[in-house]
Automatic annotation (TrEMBL):
It is found in: Cytoplasm. The lineage of its organism: Bacteria, Bacillati, Bacillota, Clostridia, Peptostreptococcales. Forms a ring-shaped head-to-tail homodimer around DNA. It comes from Alkaliphilus oremlandii (strain OhILAs) (Clostridium oremlandii (strain OhILAs)). This is Beta sliding clamp. Belongs to the beta sliding clamp family. One of its GO terms (cellular component) is DNA polymerase III complex. One of its GO terms (biological process) is DNA strand elongation involved in DNA replication.
Amino acid sequence: MKFFCNQKALMHSISIVQKAVSSKSTLPIIKGIYLEAYEDHLRLVGTDMEIGIDHVMEANIIEEGSIVVDARLFSEIIRRLPDYEVEVSLQENNQLLIKCAATEFNILSYNASEFPELPEIEEDQIHEISQDLFKNMIRQTVFATAQDETRPILTGVLMEIEDDILSMVALDGYRVALRKGKLNAHLNNRVVIPGKTLNEVNRIMTGEEDENIKISLTNNHALFTVGNTKLISRLLEGEFMNYNQIIPKEFKSRVKVNTRSLLDSIERASLLGKEGRNNLVKFSITDYKMVINSNSELGNVHEEILIELEGDDLQIAFNSKYFIDALKVIDDESVYLEFTTNLSPGIIKPITNDNTIYLVLPVRLSSY
């Protein structure tokens, strides 16, 4: 194997596939990047057996072949080379020669036949969605996934496709994030994608408005294709909670409030939130204003913001973190807050559309 390519282009390609490489595996081959030189292309693959990233770049191929090289070492070497043409060639005893300008490295490589093959995903049924829209849908849901592994299914995001509507849902037992968007769909589907996978998909998307991301789904895997990069992930197994039964359909109090003002007030109030009380903040809602209070052994804080209220006055308390997380990803200037009772879930949603809904469970006022 022997090829020439641009240093910056090679570094860019390494940075894409390296995100899937396992740093914890005891098998050296899993800590490596698979390199395959063929025709006028260089293929790079990284996998941790849960996620695999396959990327193809242009290169001047002198001799075809394949090899596996330690991802961390290879990345560090290429990163520190000057911005010139890089020559990579396989020598005897699996030694990989890397030359660039006046610099030469000889490093150990591994037999490519030992590298695990990525699953074959049929691409006859492809869903397409705008990269910009999909990036937003990930940003506005994945933060609400569970961070512990006690209920693995909740560490993922439900992707539900019905006709041309994609619904993405994340929940962790204390909150729900729901975001809907349009896509070009060929058939209905319902799968749970690991949150880690969607974060990686978000990173490989270029965000170009004229290029869609392509999604292919099987019973066990999901394939995301962006240009010359493919990401393959295992799906999570298990029964995802019926989120439609959790989200209230009616309200007794609806508050219209400026998103930024509410976020700033809650963030200030949370500074005094006592860790043992889950960063508790209390809302006192009346006709034209909402008072936000937080108490701890360090002191107390009192915030007032102007609102428009439809319905009943209310006192209700929440974990400030859950409100802050939701408000940070809402792009609308104003939001609706909808409440039924002080023991029922609160709803946060933008006023301009019904595509985004956040649910947050309250904290009992008696514990305040």
